[in-house]
Amino acid sequence: MFVIIIGIGKLGFFLAKKLLFDNHKVVLIERDNRRALEVSQKLDALVICADGTLPEILEEAGITACDCVVALTDKDEQNIIISQIAKKYYDVKRTVARVNDPQNLKAFYTLGVDVPIDTTTILTKIIEEETSIQDFINMLSFKKGRLSFVKVNISAKSVSANKKVQSIKLPPETVLLTIIRKDAVVVPRGDTVIQADDEVIALTKITQEREVVKCLLGEV
Amino acid sequence: MYVVIAGCSASASIIARELSANNFDVVIIDRNKEAFKKLSLDFSGKTVVGNVLEQEVLTEAGIDNADIFLALTDDDNVNVVSSQIVKKTFNVPKIVVVLNHHQKSKLCQGEGINIVFKSNILADFIKKICL
Questions:
Q1: What is the dihedral of CA A107, A112, A118, A122, to 10 degrees?
Q2: CA nearest B80: which of B111, B59, B101?
Q3: Is B109 helix (H, G, I), strand (E, B) or coil?
Q4: Residues of chain A with C-beta less than 8 angstroms from the C-beta of B90
Q5: Do B77 and A84 touch (CB under 8 A)?
Q6: What's the CA dihedral at A48, A52, A55, A56 to 10 degrees?
Q7: Which residues contact A50 (CB under 8 A, 6 or more apart)?
Q8: pTM for this prediction
Q9: A138-163: average pLDDT
Q10: Which of A30, A157, B77, B110 has the highest CB neighbour count under 10 A?
Protein backbone atom coordinates (compact mmCIF):
# COMPACT_ATOMS: atom_id res chain seq x y z
CA MET A 1 0.00 0.00 0.00
CA PHE A 2 1.07 3.58 -0.56
CA VAL A 3 0.33 5.83 2.41
CA ILE A 4 0.93 9.56 2.85
CA ILE A 5 1.09 10.79 6.43
CA ILE A 6 0.82 14.49 7.25
CA GLY A 7 1.97 15.57 10.68
CA ILE A 8 4.83 13.57 12.12
CA GLY A 9 4.51 13.87 15.88
CA LYS A 10 5.01 10.79 18.03
CA LEU A 11 1.94 9.09 16.61
CA GLY A 12 2.88 9.81 13.01
CA PHE A 13 6.43 8.71 13.57
CA PHE A 14 5.59 5.32 15.06
CA LEU A 15 2.87 4.77 12.52
CA ALA A 16 5.30 5.44 9.68
CA LYS A 17 7.88 3.17 11.27
CA LYS A 18 5.39 0.32 11.54
CA LEU A 19 4.09 0.76 7.99
CA LEU A 20 7.62 0.79 6.62
CA PHE A 21 8.43 -2.34 8.60
CA ASP A 22 5.38 -3.97 7.02
CA ASN A 23 6.79 -3.06 3.62
CA HIS A 24 4.37 -0.34 2.62
CA LYS A 25 5.39 2.73 0.68
CA VAL A 26 5.26 5.76 2.96
CA VAL A 27 5.76 9.45 2.22
CA LEU A 28 5.77 11.93 5.09
CA ILE A 29 4.88 15.60 5.19
CA GLU A 30 5.89 17.69 8.19
CA ARG A 31 5.77 21.45 8.42
CA ASP A 32 8.36 21.99 11.12
CA ASN A 33 11.95 22.15 9.83
CA ARG A 34 13.65 20.63 12.79
CA ARG A 35 11.15 17.83 13.19
CA ALA A 36 11.24 17.02 9.47
CA LEU A 37 15.03 16.77 9.57
CA GLU A 38 14.95 14.62 12.69
CA VAL A 39 12.44 12.24 11.14
CA SER A 40 14.27 12.01 7.83
CA GLN A 41 17.37 10.90 9.70
CA LYS A 42 15.55 8.17 11.57
CA LEU A 43 13.26 6.76 8.87
CA ASP A 44 13.92 5.44 5.43
CA ALA A 45 11.19 7.39 3.72
CA LEU A 46 10.77 10.59 1.74
CA VAL A 47 10.06 13.48 4.11
CA ILE A 48 8.72 16.69 2.64
CA CYS A 49 9.03 19.76 4.80
CA ALA A 50 6.05 21.85 3.78
CA ASP A 51 2.41 22.70 4.44
CA GLY A 52 0.54 19.46 3.76
CA THR A 53 -2.80 21.25 3.35
CA LEU A 54 -1.70 22.59 -0.03
CA PRO A 55 -2.69 20.54 -3.09
CA GLU A 56 0.65 21.13 -4.81
CA ILE A 57 2.54 19.71 -1.84
CA LEU A 58 0.30 16.66 -1.73
CA GLU A 59 0.94 16.20 -5.44
CA GLU A 60 4.66 16.32 -4.81
CA ALA A 61 4.16 13.58 -2.28
CA GLY A 62 2.51 11.46 -4.95
CA ILE A 63 -1.12 11.70 -3.87
CA THR A 64 -2.42 10.81 -7.32
CA ALA A 65 -1.14 7.27 -6.80
CA CYS A 66 -1.72 6.81 -3.09
CA ASP A 67 -4.17 4.48 -1.37
CA CYS A 68 -4.57 6.21 1.93
CA VAL A 69 -3.99 9.68 3.35
CA VAL A 70 -3.50 10.01 7.09
CA ALA A 71 -3.84 13.49 8.58
CA LEU A 72 -2.32 13.66 12.06
CA THR A 73 -1.66 17.36 12.60
CA ASP A 74 -2.60 19.06 15.85
CA LYS A 75 -5.22 21.25 14.18
CA ASP A 76 -8.59 19.78 13.32
CA GLU A 77 -9.29 22.20 10.48
CA GLN A 78 -6.05 21.15 8.81
CA ASN A 79 -6.89 17.46 9.18
CA ILE A 80 -10.33 18.01 7.69
CA ILE A 81 -9.02 20.06 4.78
CA ILE A 82 -6.32 17.48 3.98
CA SER A 83 -8.94 14.72 3.92
CA GLN A 84 -11.28 16.75 1.74
CA ILE A 85 -8.59 17.70 -0.76
CA ALA A 86 -7.51 14.05 -0.92
CA LYS A 87 -11.05 12.92 -1.69
CA LYS A 88 -12.37 15.74 -3.87
CA TYR A 89 -9.31 16.68 -5.84
CA TYR A 90 -7.52 13.34 -6.05
CA ASP A 91 -10.10 10.63 -5.42
CA VAL A 92 -8.05 8.93 -2.71
CA LYS A 93 -9.74 5.74 -1.53
CA ARG A 94 -9.42 6.21 2.19
CA THR A 95 -8.88 9.24 4.41
CA VAL A 96 -7.97 8.82 8.06
CA ALA A 97 -7.77 11.88 10.28
CA ARG A 98 -6.95 12.62 13.87
CA VAL A 99 -9.62 14.43 15.86
CA ASN A 100 -7.93 16.67 18.41
CA ASP A 101 -11.00 18.16 20.03
CA PRO A 102 -13.85 15.65 20.51
CA GLN A 103 -16.33 18.50 20.07
CA ASN A 104 -15.30 18.63 16.42
CA LEU A 105 -16.00 14.97 15.71
CA LYS A 106 -19.34 15.69 14.10
CA ALA A 107 -17.69 18.11 11.68
CA PHE A 108 -15.32 15.36 10.54
CA TYR A 109 -18.25 13.12 9.65
CA THR A 110 -20.30 15.90 8.06
CA LEU A 111 -17.41 16.92 5.86
CA GLY A 112 -16.72 13.43 4.58
CA VAL A 113 -13.66 12.15 6.41
CA ASP A 114 -13.72 8.34 6.06
CA VAL A 115 -12.18 7.42 9.40
CA PRO A 116 -11.98 10.10 12.09
CA ILE A 117 -9.86 8.94 15.03
CA ASP A 118 -10.98 10.50 18.26
CA THR A 119 -8.61 9.00 20.83
CA THR A 120 -9.98 11.10 23.68
CA THR A 121 -13.48 9.67 23.26
CA ILE A 122 -12.18 6.15 22.71
CA LEU A 123 -10.14 6.35 25.92
CA THR A 124 -12.95 8.01 27.85
CA LYS A 125 -15.30 5.23 26.78
CA ILE A 126 -12.85 2.60 27.91
CA ILE A 127 -12.26 4.31 31.24
CA GLU A 128 -15.93 5.04 31.88
CA GLU A 129 -16.94 1.59 30.87
CA GLU A 130 -14.40 0.11 33.22
CA THR A 131 -15.75 2.03 36.15
CA SER A 132 -19.46 2.06 35.47
CA ILE A 133 -20.75 -0.54 33.10
CA GLN A 134 -18.19 -3.28 33.31
CA ASP A 135 -20.23 -5.77 31.47
CA PHE A 136 -20.34 -4.35 28.01
CA ILE A 137 -17.97 -2.86 25.51
CA ASN A 138 -18.50 -1.16 22.22
CA MET A 139 -16.31 -3.31 20.03
CA LEU A 140 -16.46 -1.28 16.89
CA SER A 141 -18.25 1.72 15.48
CA PHE A 142 -18.59 2.01 11.79
CA LYS A 143 -20.74 3.37 9.02
CA LYS A 144 -19.80 6.91 9.93
CA GLY A 145 -20.34 6.24 13.62
CA ARG A 146 -23.99 5.25 13.28
CA LEU A 147 -23.72 1.52 13.84
CA SER A 148 -21.90 -0.41 16.51
CA PHE A 149 -21.08 -3.91 17.63
CA VAL A 150 -21.71 -4.32 21.33
CA LYS A 151 -20.52 -7.21 23.44
CA VAL A 152 -22.46 -7.88 26.64
CA ASN A 153 -21.39 -10.27 29.40
CA ILE A 154 -24.43 -12.02 30.86
CA SER A 155 -24.35 -12.91 34.54
CA ALA A 156 -26.76 -14.91 36.68
CA LYS A 157 -28.28 -11.61 37.83
CA SER A 158 -28.89 -10.32 34.30
CA VAL A 159 -32.47 -9.74 33.36
CA SER A 160 -32.14 -11.86 30.20
CA ALA A 161 -30.49 -14.85 31.89
CA ASN A 162 -32.47 -18.05 31.33
CA LYS A 163 -34.83 -16.30 28.96
CA LYS A 164 -35.50 -17.13 25.33
CA VAL A 165 -34.16 -14.68 22.76
CA GLN A 166 -37.66 -14.13 21.34
CA SER A 167 -38.95 -13.00 24.71
CA ILE A 168 -36.44 -10.18 25.01
CA LYS A 169 -37.78 -6.88 23.71
CA LEU A 170 -34.84 -5.32 21.96
CA PRO A 171 -34.97 -1.84 20.43
CA PRO A 172 -35.70 -1.67 16.69
CA GLU A 173 -32.84 -2.12 14.21
CA THR A 174 -30.99 -4.38 16.63
CA VAL A 175 -29.78 -7.86 15.76
CA LEU A 176 -28.30 -10.40 18.12
CA LEU A 177 -25.49 -11.77 16.00
CA THR A 178 -23.80 -14.37 18.12
CA ILE A 179 -23.64 -15.89 21.55
CA ILE A 180 -20.26 -17.08 22.73
CA ARG A 181 -20.73 -19.85 25.26
CA LYS A 182 -17.55 -21.26 26.80
CA ASP A 183 -15.55 -21.55 23.58
CA ALA A 184 -18.37 -22.31 21.23
CA VAL A 185 -20.36 -20.05 19.01
CA VAL A 186 -24.10 -20.31 19.32
CA VAL A 187 -26.24 -18.89 16.56
CA PRO A 188 -29.08 -17.17 18.35
CA ARG A 189 -32.54 -18.17 17.22
CA GLY A 190 -35.90 -17.24 18.70
CA ASP A 191 -35.96 -20.21 21.04
CA THR A 192 -32.30 -20.00 22.10
CA VAL A 193 -32.05 -19.56 25.85
CA ILE A 194 -29.52 -17.02 27.07
CA GLN A 195 -27.42 -18.34 29.93
CA ALA A 196 -25.21 -16.85 32.62
CA ASP A 197 -21.58 -16.43 31.46
CA ASP A 198 -22.71 -16.05 27.84
CA GLU A 199 -21.15 -13.26 25.82
CA VAL A 200 -23.80 -11.80 23.58
CA ILE A 201 -22.74 -9.78 20.56
CA ALA A 202 -25.32 -7.44 19.11
CA LEU A 203 -25.35 -5.10 16.14
CA THR A 204 -27.30 -1.93 16.76
CA LYS A 205 -27.47 1.80 16.16
CA ILE A 206 -25.03 3.72 18.28
CA THR A 207 -27.85 5.75 19.84
CA GLN A 208 -29.41 2.54 21.13
CA GLU A 209 -26.39 0.98 22.79
CA ARG A 210 -27.49 1.74 26.34
CA GLU A 211 -30.99 0.51 25.64
CA VAL A 212 -29.69 -2.81 24.31
CA VAL A 213 -27.51 -3.26 27.38
CA LYS A 214 -30.48 -2.48 29.60
CA CYS A 215 -32.61 -5.10 27.81
CA LEU A 216 -29.95 -7.73 28.30
CA LEU A 217 -28.59 -6.91 31.73
CA GLY A 218 -31.34 -4.94 33.42
CA GLU A 219 -31.07 -1.57 35.14
CA VAL A 220 -27.43 -0.77 35.73
CA MET B 1 -31.14 40.54 9.30
CA TYR B 2 -29.09 38.29 11.56
CA VAL B 3 -25.38 37.98 10.77
CA VAL B 4 -22.86 35.63 12.36
CA ILE B 5 -19.21 36.46 11.78
CA ALA B 6 -16.35 34.02 12.34
CA GLY B 7 -13.12 35.70 13.37
CA CYS B 8 -12.76 39.14 14.87
CA SER B 9 -10.09 40.35 12.49
CA ALA B 10 -9.48 44.02 11.71
CA SER B 11 -11.77 43.86 8.66
CA ALA B 12 -14.36 41.96 10.65
CA SER B 13 -14.54 44.66 13.27
CA ILE B 14 -15.16 47.32 10.60
CA ILE B 15 -17.77 45.20 8.83
CA ALA B 16 -19.44 44.45 12.14
CA ARG B 17 -19.65 48.12 12.97
CA GLU B 18 -21.12 49.01 9.57
CA LEU B 19 -23.71 46.26 9.69
CA SER B 20 -24.71 46.94 13.23
CA ALA B 21 -25.09 50.64 12.42
CA ASN B 22 -27.47 49.56 9.66
CA ASN B 23 -29.64 47.69 12.12
CA PHE B 24 -28.34 44.22 11.44
CA ASP B 25 -28.13 41.86 14.40
CA VAL B 26 -24.47 40.94 14.54
CA VAL B 27 -22.76 38.16 16.50
CA ILE B 28 -18.99 37.66 16.28
CA ILE B 29 -17.22 34.44 17.22
CA ASP B 30 -13.51 34.34 18.05
CA ARG B 31 -11.56 31.82 20.06
CA ASN B 32 -9.51 34.56 21.67
CA LYS B 33 -11.41 37.11 23.74
CA GLU B 34 -8.62 39.67 23.33
CA ALA B 35 -9.61 39.91 19.68
CA PHE B 36 -12.85 41.65 20.64
CA LYS B 37 -10.84 44.65 21.81
CA LYS B 38 -10.71 45.63 18.15
CA LEU B 39 -14.43 46.32 18.20
CA SER B 40 -15.48 49.94 18.42
CA LEU B 41 -17.17 51.10 21.60
CA ASP B 42 -20.42 51.69 19.76
CA PHE B 43 -20.66 48.08 18.55
CA SER B 44 -24.06 46.94 19.66
CA GLY B 45 -23.89 43.29 18.70
CA LYS B 46 -22.95 40.18 20.65
CA THR B 47 -19.63 38.35 21.03
CA VAL B 48 -19.04 34.66 21.60
CA VAL B 49 -15.68 33.25 22.71
CA GLY B 50 -15.10 29.82 21.23
CA ASN B 51 -14.03 27.64 18.34
CA VAL B 52 -16.19 28.35 15.31
CA LEU B 53 -15.91 24.72 14.16
CA GLU B 54 -17.87 23.48 17.18
CA GLN B 55 -21.60 23.08 16.77
CA GLU B 56 -22.19 24.24 20.35
CA VAL B 57 -20.39 27.51 19.72
CA LEU B 58 -22.31 28.17 16.49
CA THR B 59 -25.57 27.40 18.27
CA GLU B 60 -24.66 29.78 21.09
CA ALA B 61 -24.09 32.43 18.45
CA GLY B 62 -27.61 31.84 17.19
CA ILE B 63 -26.66 30.26 13.86
CA ASP B 64 -30.10 28.65 13.66
CA ASN B 65 -31.58 32.09 13.10
CA ALA B 66 -28.81 33.48 10.94
CA ASP B 67 -29.50 34.92 7.51
CA ILE B 68 -25.85 35.51 6.74
CA PHE B 69 -22.57 33.89 7.80
CA LEU B 70 -19.22 35.55 7.16
CA ALA B 71 -16.03 33.50 7.43
CA LEU B 72 -13.44 36.17 8.12
CA THR B 73 -10.72 34.52 10.16
CA ASP B 74 -7.09 34.88 9.08
CA ASP B 75 -6.86 31.16 8.44
CA ASP B 76 -8.12 29.87 5.08
CA ASN B 77 -8.48 26.37 6.54
CA VAL B 78 -10.83 27.56 9.29
CA ASN B 79 -12.84 29.64 6.81
CA VAL B 80 -13.23 26.79 4.33
CA VAL B 81 -14.21 24.27 7.01
CA SER B 82 -16.54 26.53 9.00
CA SER B 83 -18.44 27.73 5.92
CA GLN B 84 -19.08 24.12 4.93
CA ILE B 85 -20.30 23.20 8.41
CA VAL B 86 -22.58 26.21 8.41
CA LYS B 87 -23.95 25.31 4.99
CA LYS B 88 -24.37 21.58 5.50
CA THR B 89 -25.55 21.48 9.09
CA PHE B 90 -27.39 24.77 9.41
CA ASN B 91 -28.18 25.70 5.82
CA VAL B 92 -27.69 29.43 6.32
CA PRO B 93 -28.89 31.06 3.07
CA LYS B 94 -26.05 33.51 2.45
CA ILE B 95 -22.43 32.73 3.19
CA VAL B 96 -19.34 34.78 2.40
CA VAL B 97 -15.89 33.20 2.63
CA VAL B 98 -12.80 35.38 2.45
CA LEU B 99 -9.71 33.52 1.32
CA ASN B 100 -6.06 34.43 0.92
CA HIS B 101 -5.33 31.67 -1.59
CA HIS B 102 -7.23 29.97 -4.39
CA GLN B 103 -6.23 26.37 -3.91
CA LYS B 104 -8.89 25.34 -1.42
CA SER B 105 -11.80 27.32 -2.81
CA LYS B 106 -13.22 24.33 -4.69
CA LEU B 107 -14.10 22.74 -1.35
CA CYS B 108 -16.53 25.43 -0.34
CA GLN B 109 -18.33 26.16 -3.55
CA GLY B 110 -22.06 25.84 -3.52
CA GLU B 111 -25.40 27.51 -3.56
CA GLY B 112 -25.45 30.74 -1.63
CA ILE B 113 -21.72 30.63 -0.93
CA ASN B 114 -19.77 33.66 -2.11
CA ILE B 115 -16.01 33.45 -2.20
CA VAL B 116 -13.89 36.57 -2.00
CA PHE B 117 -10.21 36.40 -2.84
CA LYS B 118 -8.60 39.03 -0.67
CA SER B 119 -5.31 39.17 -2.55
CA ASN B 120 -7.02 39.51 -5.94
CA ILE B 121 -9.00 42.51 -4.84
CA LEU B 122 -5.92 44.19 -3.41
CA ALA B 123 -3.86 43.35 -6.50
CA ASP B 124 -6.50 44.78 -8.84
CA PHE B 125 -6.75 47.94 -6.83
CA ILE B 126 -3.01 48.47 -6.68
CA LYS B 127 -2.66 47.69 -10.36
CA LYS B 128 -5.11 50.48 -11.15
CA ILE B 129 -3.06 52.93 -9.17
CA CYS B 130 0.24 51.86 -10.65
CA LEU B 131 -0.75 51.49 -14.29
A1: 110
A2: B101
A3: coil
A4: none
A5: no
A6: -30
A7: A29, A31, A57, A60
A8: 0.76
A9: 79
A10: A30
A54 interaction partners in chain B (CB closer than 8 Å): 103
pLDDT one-digit tens code per residue, B35-52: 999 998 888 899 999 999
From A80, A88, A106, residue closest to B106, measured CB to CB: A88
Question: For chain A, percent helix, then strand, then coil, each to nearest 5?
Answer: 40, 25, 35
Whether A107 and B78 lie within 8 Å, measured CB to CB: no
Q: Is B50 part of the contact surface with chain A (CB cutoff 8 Å)?
A: no
What is the 8-class DSSP label of residue A170?
Answer: P
SS3 of residue A28 by DSSP: strand
Residues 6+ apart with CB under 8 A from A41: none
Q: What is the enclosing helix (H) or strand (E) of A178?
A: strand A175-181
Q: In sequence order, what are the residues at sequence separation of 6 or more whose Cβ sits closer than 8 angstroms to the Cβ of residue B126?
A: none
